[in-house]
Design goal:
The complex is a heterodimer of chains A (about 625) and B (about 80). Chain A is α/β, with parallel strands linked by helices and about 625 residues long. In chain A, the strands form three sheets. Chain A has an eight-stranded mixed β-sheet with strand order 15-16-14-13-12-11-10-17, sandwiched between helices. A five-stranded parallel β-sheet of chain A has the order 2-1-3-4-5, with helices on both faces. A four-stranded parallel β-sheet of chain A has the order 8-7-6-9, with helices on both faces. Chain B is an all-alpha fold. Chain B has four helices and no strands. Chain B is globular and about 30 Å long. Classes of the chains: A alpha/beta (about 625), B mainly alpha (about 80). At the A-B interface, helix 3 and helix 11 of A face helix 2 and helix 3 of B.
């Protein structure tokens, strides 16, 4: 018996019992309230019909309110060898769960090649942010057309080449990356198990196709949603519904729409940098069985050999794996701090150590306030936090008080905790860099820096004591992945919040009128890695600062002054007379409202209040003295 | 199963699927008379009904079903 029903997204709450009534009232609510209501409905599991209805309500709202929902926008083209009429509303509705306003450019049934190779096709002319290529095995030429009748063998190379041509067609037509799918391994076989040993059988070629496709994605800046993984988990016989394929060309069973929608939308969310960065965990009955305050060190369960204990060790191992890939861990538990910390110091079987957590809060305050405190200590937004707790009451309290925090549902059985957490996709990634791995270290040393700050008499002394070394380089291949990540993830210290894809970053590197800068910083606590990105566009003797963003880890360290010194030096060398800085205010970047005035820029009055222009005469600039050396 | 209670349940699912557009629903309500009962609406309606009654319509039946009455009769047949 399968204990988790994956197609019903077990990590989500069940839909409100008055789903239909709330939906009906949405049209009458004030805008902010109606968008919040849409998001709240979308945050529960919705069956295919409910997704369909939520999408209709969303689209009505968009029509009546001048089309904007005030959420992160993403424009997605879709091509398929099947019918996408169900997929489109399912994606539109599910995207709300990730606070994304998805605009979809659909295409007729089986228009894959026509859309890709015609530069003026509806998708190419719309310049989407990405194109979803939804193909099942029927949409790929595993056999060459002229050989199809002769029974000649299948060839995964041929299918791969077709996909590559389609991807390149869109790349040439609109410059956009594609989101690709692996293919469900077919359940029909000619000989049975023997098929896997024989070249040219469809079963074997689909496996090989999937691996080659993954390699292609790894070596290009496209994205993958691993449908074969999904269909293997739910069972290929359940994933494909032949009746629906023959009747209406549905590329997979209608009942899988909620699952498919969530996996595509979490990938889009990851592209937009919306994955969670930090996991806050409860202790009692979440990391170990029992309650330390009642059961004591001897009584709590995490012993190898004890089945219940092993289930909790599995949770701990999962947390260590997450930390290893750069997710920050923190504790939020209702406990006496000394008692709670003692478990980590004294228990023989515990796998996690106190040092694995960037923040450790064990007290009797409500968890929502504690989580806000953790966000504050780590300088991250609440929308970067996920919270794991076995107690439904605590989960509900946090969800209600802090709707931005992701709180996965957990089954009663601890042996399913790890799986549920991992399948939730809260930490979905579309790339992985060495920088990610070091994150916990960096946040830990940040906490240590805060201690020094207390001890130092003045901020100047503190900064001087950090022994900072800064280095500047133009964009290059080595830094590219991290540059793209910073551009797409940084919200607070970001003057314009302009997002660019990897291919756009590549074109900046190649454009002679674009000045690019990546900045790295080390100090006596360790290497902070790349912490700042600047892009300037040249027009005659003027530079316009298109993008200037910095990691929040290094705020208040005078880094921006040294970056400004460097920018002005480079501007002088290139004959630039004026530098114009842009500030586009958002809900998240108030932190940098005074950035340009603090650097000595003068504001140019303008009628438009959505963008501020600041100017600096290069000849008038007096360099700041800063507490760091260049390397 | 009573014909009336099956009809009531089917009618409720149809109202829910087509957003009350097809009120009032009778055994005679057919695909022509409901705007949203197009080929996609057909799939939405029938998958809901299959789930609710625990029945399975064959590909041939799906193609032939044209009215609420036919659905009710098929369900009664299958539950016999």
């Amino acid at each position: 018996m399968s204990a988790l029903s994956l197609p019903e997204l077990p990590w989500l709450t069940r839909p409100a019992s008055d789903f239909r009534n709330i939906l009906k009232r949405i049209g009458e609510m004030p805008r902010d309230e109606s968008v919040a209501a849409l998001i709240q409905l979308a945050s529960s599991y919705l069956n295919p019909n409910q997704l369909y209805k939520l999408a209709s309500a969303r689209n009505k709202l968009k029509q009546s309110r001048g089309s904007s929902l005030g959420l992160t926008k993403f424009k997605l083209g879709i091509v398929s060898n099947g019918t996408t009429d169900f997929v489109i509303p399912a994606l539109e509705a599910t995207a709300l769960r990730y606070r994304i306003d998805l605009e979809i450019i659909g295409s007729g049934f089986d228009q894959v090649a026509a859309q890709a190779f015609d530069p003026s096709s509806s998708i190419n002319s719309a310049s989407p942010d990405a194109i979803l290529i939804l193909l099942n095995q029927h949409g790929l030429p595993f056999r060459a057309a002229e050989e199809q009748t002769s029974g000649s063998p299948n060839d995964h190379q041929q299918a791969l080449e077709f996909i590559q041509q389609v991807v390149q067609g869109f790349r040439a037509g609109c410059g956009s990356p594609s989101i690709l799918h692996t293919i469900t391994v077919p359940s029909n076989r000619q000989f049975g198990s023997l098929d896997l040993t024989m070249r040219g059988t469809q079963g074997r070629e689909v496996y090989q196709f999937n691996l080659s496709l993954a390699d292609f994605v790894a070596s290009s800046d496209n994205y993958l949603v691993d449908i074969d993984w999904l269909s293997t988990m739910v069972g290929n016989l359940a994933w494909v519904d032949e009746k629906q394929w023959f009747h209406a060309r549905l590329p997979f069973s209608q009942s899988m729409l909620p699952l498919y929608g969530d996996f595509v939308c979490r990938t889009i969310a990851a592209i937009r940098g919306k994955s969670r960065k930090c996991l806050v965990v409860d202790l009692d009955n979440t990391l170990w069985g029992g309650v330390i305050g009642d059961d004591g060190l001897e009584g709590i369960r995490m012993q190898p050999g004890d089945p219940v204990g092993e289930a909790y060790l599995d949770v701990q191992r999962t947390l260590l794996d997450l930390k290893e890939r750069g997710i920050i861990l923190a504790v939020c538990s209702k406990n006496n701090e000394v008692t709670a910390r003692e478990v980590f110091k004294k228990h023989h079987d515990i796998l996690l150590k106190e040092e694995d957590f960037a923040v450790f809060l064990a007290n009797w305050s409500d968890k929502a306030s504690n989580i806000e405190h953790i966000a504050d200590r780590l300088d991250i937004g609440l929308d970067a936090i996920a919270f794991l707790d076995d107690n439904p009451v605590e989960r509900d309290q946090v969800r209600t008080a802090l709707p931005l925090v992701a709180v996965p549902e957990l089954p009663d059985d601890p042996s399913l905790f790890s799986k549920t957490l991992l399948l939730s996709g809260l930490f979905e990634s579309v790339s992985f860099t060495e920088e990610d791995r070091k994150k916990t270290e960096q946040y830990l040393s940040n906490a240590k820096r805060k201690e020094i700050l207390k001890a130092s008499r003045s901020i100047e002394e503190y900064l001087a004591s950090l022994e900072m070394k800064i280095s500047f380089r133009p964009f290059d291949e080595a830094g590219r992945k991290r540059i793209v990540q910073l551009i797409n993830k940084t919200n607070q210290f970001n003057l314009t919040t302009r997002r660019y894809t990897e291919s756009e970053v590549v074109s900046m590197e190649e454009d002679s009128d674009t000045f690019t800068l990546q900045v790295s910083l080390t100090d006596k606590f360790g290497n902070n890695g790349m912490i700042c990105v600047v892009v300037c566009q040249r027009e005659g003797t003027q530079w316009t600062i298109d993008s200037w963003l910095m990691s929040c880890r290094v705020i208040k360290r005078d880094v921006e002054k040294e970056v400004c010194n460097y920018l002005v030096e480079k501007a002088r060398e290139r004959g630039i007379e004026t530098i114009v800085g842009l500030y586009i205010p958002t809900d998240r970047n108030k932190l940098v409202a005074d950035h340009y005035s603090a650097l000595g820029f003068t504001r140019i009055p303008a009628d438009d209040d959505t963008i501020e222009y600041w100017t600096l005469k290069v000849t008038d600039y007096v360099p700041f003295s800063t507490p760091m050396v260049r390397t | 199963m009573e014909k009336d209670s099956v009809f009531e349940k089917v009618a409720e699912i149809a109202r829910d699927t087509f957003d009350d557009e097809c009120d009032p629903i009778s055994m005679e309500t057919s695909r022509d008379s409901v705007e949203d009962w197009n080929s996609l609406g057909h799939i939405r309606l029938l998958t809901e009904i299959e789930e609710e009654f625990g029945v399975d319509f064959s590909i041939d039946e799906i193609s032939k079903i044209d009215s609420i009455g036919q659905i009710v009769d098929l369900i009664l047949q299958k539950n016999d």
